[in-house]
Amino acid sequence: MYFRQCLSLSMALCAACVCAWPQSISSGTVDGSVVDPAKAVVPKASVELSNGVSGYRQIVSTGDNGNFRFNNVPFNDYRLTVSAPGFATLTIEIHSTIPQHVSAQLALAGSKQEVDVEANSGLVENEPSAHTDTDSSVFLKLPRFDPGSD
Fold first, then answer.
1. Is residue 76 part of a domain?
2. Which domain holds residue 101?
3. How confident is the model at residue 7 (pLDDT cuts 50, 70, 90)?
4. How far apart are CA 147 and CA 150, in angstroms?
5. 143 preceded by cis ω (within 30°)?
6. Domain count across the chain
7. Percent helix, strand, coil in the chain (nearest 5)?
8. What are phi and psi of 140, to 5 degrees?
9. What's this model's pTM, rounded to 2 decimal places?
10. More confident of the two residues 78 and 16
11. What is the mean pLDDT of residues 102-126?
12. Where are the alpha helices (DSSP H) in the chain?
């Protein structure tokens, strides 16, 4: 009787371990840090982990130390997108090796300048034939010939 109880208990423990083991390796973590070109940490940067096929998406912000962490990330390929004001957006492809540690170095964003161009409708040619435009001052510079005078 004692042997049967020990055997039943042993089988129950083995079954629990076998059931729990696959769950512990079906997901992992993605963590890392975000720094600027001078290797200084970038706090409050937005970090997005996404997979367009599965629809998986998580967004976190870096802490004051520039670190971020995603927990319970299923094994898959991901796109990590890091953005912060004043910096160019950085995209890193992560290929199914989880856990993964990522060091993201952001580049400074280039300055943007907008130029508005407006056209005056009087300067647009609407005549489809070939012709030459001449300024009226050209006619004033031509030599004058008066056939009635000698």
1. yes
2. 27-105
3. very low
4. 8
5. no
6. 1
7. 20, 35, 45
8. -70, -20
9. 0.57
10. 78
11. 71
12. 2-24, 136-141
